[in-house]
Amino acid sequence: MTKEQESPEADAESVLQSEVRLHKWKWSLPFLAAFLPIVLLSFYSFQLSSDSVRFLVEKENISASESLAQLLVQDVQQNVKLAHAVASIPGTISAVEQKDELAMRSRLKAIMVSNAKLHRAFVVDADGKLWSEFPTAEGLYGSSFAGWTWFYEVKKNKRPYISGLYIRSQFPDKPVIAIATPIISGDTFLGVLVFEYQVDHISKWLENIGLGVNGNILLLDQDGALVAHPDITVGYSINKSYIDIPAIEKAHEGMLQTSEYTDPTVDKEMVATFLPIAVGKHLWVVVAQQPKEDAFALLNEVKRNLSVVGGMMTFLTLIMIATLARISAKNIVLNKTLEEKNQALKDFTSIVSHQLKAPITAMRWNIESVLDGDYGEISDDLRDLMNTLHSVNISNYHLIMDILNVSRLDRGVVTIVRHAVPLRDIAERAIRDYVPAAKKAGLTLKIDEKQKGIMVLADLEKTAESITNSISNAIKYTKKGGITVTLSEENGMGVIRVTDTGDGMTEEMMANLFSRSGVKKSNTSAESSSGLGLFIAKNFMQLQKGDITVSSEVGKGTTFTYTLQIASDADIAKESKKEEETTADPIKE
Fold first, then answer.
1. Cα dist from 22 to 17, 31, 32, 34, whole Å
2. What is the CATH number of the domain that holds 560?
């Protein structure tokens, strides 16, 4: 065969191969057209799942860390107040001035017996020398604490000081923090009362706070020392394994953040939220963390499923739709799982609040018994002190009740029972307990009934509780003038307006007044106030198909407006019948 004969055949083969290749490329276009949307949709679905999982993990971490922070700050503040109260008692000052070691030791013993969270209590003089203690620690009597930071800070500033964690050679297995309070007579600095607050019970708190599958919470002081950990015993030496972690350094600067890092104690990657909390004048850090592999286990499973289903969807669009539905279902399960865990945290908060409510109530009874003279006559100074403790106790009681109410609202277990009730009855119930407080503050507190006999559908107790919040705030922030509770009927609704002549509020303050996230600002100054009162009041009113609004002008005062549905004739008749039955048969009631 000649070259001339071979050339046309070679050209034909070449053209054929070119056509085959072109045909393959043409078929690849619809393949790519189908494949590209599948890839894009798969990537988008994975991204949504990833963002959802990360958000819910962070939310769960924050919720757990805030639970611990709330317990710790409240407990420490109570012990600071107790130390300050004891240091201010004339009997304590007298014992310190006279260096009456027996009298001082008796006082310290009484404190230790009644407070299991304290390990020791002692007193140092103005030069830092220990001269009274309970229980006795070998070799410490007469020791000088002049070089300790807490002594320097208290002597310099004449204010309570909370130290970081430290280890004592006499009790190496019982690490503590110092709550130091000045003892002052007039302008004279006499010494320092010190409570050594043991931290091992904080680790027990941590054991009761569930977090993810294998998550945990740990606590670091201002120096980065490990204060509490559910799985690691704190004691014998200061553990500063976390001190050089950048996220913790930022948290000590006041920055809340969630990031991934390697836990130095277990050498495992964690997804952690670092929450700074104020303990005294320092910032401590609560670290809520979950192993990365556990936190994102469901996300990794979604990723694998999308890879498999994405390949199949190259040939069949319906499979793609089924896969997206499956991903959506997994997201719902994931959300449900995390909601259940969050619910467990809310239940834990409710249980703790209930547990705190009983001792607070018992303490109030005892204080009131002393004030009523059940234990004999008391001096004016002691009466003033007991009145102060009574006020602190009442504030703490309201704080716990606010936390309980928010927990009930979150869990949907608030019971509202509406009856036909006179609008004036609600107003009288709301102001009943605040007339003495208003009178003491030099303010008027009155009801202005524009229309008589207005009947509304309402839960009397919860509506009155909602209104008392604005009355209480009005008394706090009104210097002169008074508070007027006005009753009227407008647009088919019963209306109660609480108007004061106080300082008023800015637009910025009113914008967040009824929200959970924005209430703890300039409108709540009391240390024991939760700032949740108006958030709870708003929810109580809306559960009754009513509402609460606010208007204010700086320097002129504030008006809170509560609206409730007017009771129908049938509602009024039904309530009258119930009252007649109750009157006829009181035993049945």
1. 9, 14, 15, 19
2. 3.30.565.10
Query: Is 86 buried (19+), middle (13-18) or exposed (0-12) by CB count in 10 A?
Result: buried
Residue 47 and residue 85 in contact, taking contact as beta carbons nearer than 8 Å = no
Alpha carbons 544 and 564: distance in angstroms, whole number = 7
Residue 268 lies in a domain: no
Task: Please tell me the total number of residues recorded for the chain in this structure.
Answer: 589
Chain-centroid distance, C-alpha 403: 8
The pairing of beta strand 547-553 with beta strand 166-168: unpaired
Q: pLDDT tens digits for 365-417? A: 777 777 777 777 888 888 778 777 766 766 666 666 666 566 555 666 567 78
| pTM for this entry | 0.46
Of 220, 226, 206, residue with least CA distance to 352:
206
> Which residue, among 507, 514, 505, has the nearest Cα to 549 in the 3D structure?
514
Cα 142 to its chain centre, rounded Å, is 42
The domain tally of the chain equals: 1
CA atoms within 13 A on the CB side of 5: 2
Residue 24 makes CB contacts below 8 A (sequence gap 6+) with none
d(CA 153, CA 146): 10
- By CB atoms closer than 10 A (0-12, 13-18, 19+), residue 551 is middle
